[in-house]
Amino acid sequence: MDARFVVADVYDAAQALDGETFDVVYTGSGALPWLPDLRRWARVVERLLAPGGFLHLAESHPFAHTLDEAAGTTVASDYFDEGPHVSTEAGSYADRLAATTQNTTVQYEHRLGSVISAIAGAGLRIEFLHEHDLALFAQFDALVRGPDGFRLPEGRHRVPLMYSLRAAKPGRPVAS
Question: Were both Cys, which of 46, 77, 111, 114 would link to 122 (CB 3.0–4.6 Å)?
C-alpha cells in the first residue's frame, strides 16, 4: 500500500496536511472519547473533506457506556454526563492487567445527539446512522464471542453497543 503517515494533534490535522483534501475521512472505534471538543473535531473533518467526500464514523455506542460491566444490561451511570471523566487505575484501558502501576486517563462520553449535532453543525449532511448490537471487544463480562464480534447471549434483551454513520460534504467531487 502506498501510504503517508502524518503525526499531528487531531485538531491541527488540516494545517499539518497543508490544506490537502480527501474523498474519505474515517474515524474508528475508540477515537471520540479522547476528544474534549466534538464541534472543533467536526470542523476539522469538514476542512479535510473534498466536495462530495464523506466521513465514515464507527464508534462505541454512548448508551453502552452507561451499563454495568458485568451483566451489560443494567444502567449504572448517567447517560447525560458527558464528562470529563478522570480515572487513575493500574493497568490500561486496553489491558487492565498490564504491568503498569498508575495511569490517569481523561475521557468523554459524548452522547449520540452531541456527535450528530457537531457533524451537522460543521455543514456535513448525515446520510445514515446505524446502531449495532455487537461490540468489537468483550466490553462486558456477559458478552459472547460470535463470528462478527461480541453480543449479549441469546435470549437477553439487546442493547446498542456500537453505531456507525456516514456524513457527506455538499458539492460535486472534483474531476480528476
Answer: 46
Q: pLDDT grade, residue 59 (50/70/90)?
A: very high
Q: Looking at the 3D structure of the chain, how many domains does it have?
A: 1
Give whole-number Cα distances, 28 to 19, 33, 95, 146, 153, in Å: 22, 11, 19, 21, 25
pLDDT (mean) for 29-44: 95
Q: How far apart are CA 160 and CA 164, in angstroms?
A: 11
pLDDT tens, position by position, 112-171 = 999 999 999 999 999 999 999 999 988 888 899 999 999 999 988 889 999 999 999 998
> Strand, helix or coil at 165?
strand
Helix (H) or strand (E) holding 27: strand 22-27
Residue 100 lies in a domain: no
How many other C-beta atoms can be found within 10 angstroms of the C-beta atom of residue 34?
12
Residue-range definition of the domain harbouring residue 42 = 21-76+110-168
CATH label of the domain that carries residue 131: 3.40.50.150
Residues 139 and 162 sit within 8 Å (Cβ to Cβ)? no
- Cβ-proximal residues to 61 (8 Å cutoff; 6+ apart), any chain: 112, 131, 132, 160, 161, 162, 163
